[in-house]
Amino acid sequence: MLFIVVLAIVTFVSILLILPIFSRRNTATLNIKDKYVLITGCDSGFGRETALRLDKMGVCVLATCLTEEGEQSLRSVASEKLKTFQMDVTDPQQIEAVFFKVNQLLEGSSGLWGLVNNAGILTVGPVEWLPLDAYKKVADVNLWGLVDVTKTFLPLIKKAKGRIVIVSSIAGVISPQAFSPYCISKYGVEAFADALRREMRPFEVLVSVIEPGATRTPILNDVLLCARLKQLWDNLSEEKQQEYGKGYLENATKGFRDWCKSASKQVSRVIDAIVLPLTSRSPKKCYVIGQDAWQLKFLSHLPEVLQDFVLREFPFRVVVPSGRDLFEKSSTNGSAH
Fold it and tell me: Which helix (H) or strand (E) holds 153?
């Protein structure tokens, strides 16, 4: 068993060393000043910062925000060139309405150079604690909304032979405990991006995925996440609470609080990665950002038994009232078969 594990690690490291030789990209850049780029989820976080970065570069930014307050806040610090639109990515009618306005705005132009799919939400919690609606809500925004927006604006992007940038997550390649709603949506995003990239290549439309690790943005709010965990706990039956034990909630709360506090403050690195596929003549299909993201990316290629072992304490150690670690239990059960 040890030999197989070592062989897997050596093989993977060898591939990492050799791959750059075959995947070198042209570092030449394009001047995208005055080109049109549409960005979703610009109320805060990556979307807002990307909109402001591109605005400073002279790009014609079309920024969509969930709220009117988000629009006003963004316009107050941007140039008059930047246009905002109120759009909920889960509302097909709002998407169509924005498309109609953008189509009119771009009339006589070469089309939409870039689409940055950024809008997203995060929900955490153990599978048994979460209602099905929680899964659906996350998928509606992170996955189905993204698909709808992409399909709607695709004709304008094809006209420009432009770029599609999809802000995914390292959670799209590996699924730690208590992240299942978010990971499901991001796994779907990765699959959609792969298919779209292959389908669009004949039309000279290039698709890139951004896979950031934990980054200090409003979505990583430890107070809100921990309050949500407490709410989920309170909604459990007394029997289920006894099954998990109060220690489980305490460990989970501390784990998520520590995880949020350890998140990278280098938001600009993610913005750099989002902008790069829009300006590069030969963008990469995937940009992994952050030390934790690279570690998890590496881990995702290792045998599952190693993944389970490494992730047994991330974001918290799972212990039930019996005092036995769930990983130890599963290992014992597995050896009994």
Answer: helix 146-160
Model confidence pLDDT, tens digit, residues 82-135: 999 999 999 999 999 999 999 999 999 999 999 999 999 999 999 999 999 999
Using CA atoms, how far residue 69 sits from 42, 53, 72, 122, in Å, is: 11, 20, 5, 21
Q: Write down the domain spans for the chain.
A: 29-217+266-308
CA dist 274 and 276 (Å) reads 6
Is the CB of residue 256 less than 8 Å from the CB of residue 229?
yes
Q: What is the secondary structure of 36-86 as a DSSP string?
A: EEEES--SSHHHHHHHHHHHHTT-EEEEEESSHHHHHHHHTTS-TT-EEEE
DSSP classification of residue 78: S
pTM, two decimals, is: 0.88
DSSP codes of every residue in 204-219: T-EEEEEEE-SB-STT
- DSSP class of residue 112 equals -
Annotated active-site residue in 182, 187, 248, 287: 182
> The domain 29-217+266-308 belongs to what CATH superfamily?
NAD(P)-binding Rossmann-like Domain (3.40.50.720)
Q: Is 187 a catalytic residue?
A: no
Q: In what order do the strands lie in the sheet with 60-65?
A: 83-86, 60-65, 36-39, 114-117, 163-167, 206-212, 286-289
